[in-house]
Amino acid sequence: MRKRWMAGGIALLATVVLAGAAFAAAGASRGSTVTLTLWHNYGTGGNAAATNNLVAAFEKENPSIKIKVISQPSANYFSLLQASGISHSGPDLAVMWTGLFDLKYEKLLVNLKPYFTAAEMAKINGLKWVAPNFNPAKGFLVMPLENQFYMGFYNKALFKKAGLSGPPKNWSQLYSACAKLKAAGVAAPIVYGADPQAIQSSPYPWYDMSYLMGAILSPAQFKGLYTGQVSWTSPAIVAQVSKWVALPKKGCTNSDVLTKTDILGAFAKGQAAMIIDGNWDAATLQKALGNKVAPFVPPFSDKPQQAVVQYSGDGFSLTSYSKHRKEGAAFLKFLTTPQASKIIAAAGLIPDILGSRSASSLTNQMLDFAAKQHMTPYPMIDNVTQSEVVTTGSKQLDDALGGNISALAALKSMKATLDALPAARKGPVYSG
To answer: Is the dihedral of CA 183, 184, 190, 191 positive or negative?
Structure first.
């Protein structure tokens, strides 16, 4: 999962040091009981509920181990974590995002391979995305909490009203569906605007880019975007992005794509027929729309779309300065158990253990795209693309979607950002 974070944070170091000292004192006062600290940036949503319930269950099974859960602010979470790592005053366990994010903080994290058996590691879905250089043979840095999706959602009632039997599967079907929905009185066939995750105050284009690129590149070829061997300005990519930025002109979107707010609310109220979002909003949408909402893969493809973004988005890491590695690793191993999977599923999430299902029918439909419809799972492209390129793309792609610049101009800016990076940041070995 991609969220905004702020670099730096060294000015917060003194606060973190004091907090670390308080945590250490709390652990010492318990005598033979070992007290760990766990930091997360989940707020109060399903991930936070799952974390608290997992900790409670683990403590019940391991009465000599206590885990103090600390909710940190999302805006500067990684700044706090980095600052505390310098002083070795931070948590024993910390929420960590995957892909290039955990590689960025690799020096602060313990390689978990020595603490897990081969059988336990084999249970973890998408293990490569939490491994050094994305190679599981080298171990892994994060125990994923959940299986995540970038996903489209559509309103079945509005589709039926427009005479549509199901969601579109390619560009031509999408354009046709937009026309029929508009004719049926749906003002915004697809709603765009401020990202529901509050990543930015305009659309977050990387949900869409994952599918735009998945339609023309294999998962392995995504590395070419990282190294530059696949140019952001290649004709195939320009063609894909050009079709995407044409959506407003073709009447597929609301007119105020760059400034509209509360797009999740608009979709939930039936004011739009489709939204490009993520599985983390599935519970909200199912509560609002019931059986009228269903997932679909964004059909940004000339042929029927065969890519589905299914990815181990985040999880927990053990910090390299923890004095309780054995106990911390025990908690991470607990996440591979059936008991833990049941707790995660009950929170509306999809456990990141092979073969797991969710308690939500809506998210189980997402699992079936790969499991039953044999679509190819892809990573979230912004987790395997340099953060500088992602930042440039977030602005330039939105400018193109809003009609301010061309698709080619946006992609040229992204290429220029990649070209300016040091060779080590775009070489054969992935580096955060």
So the answer is: positive
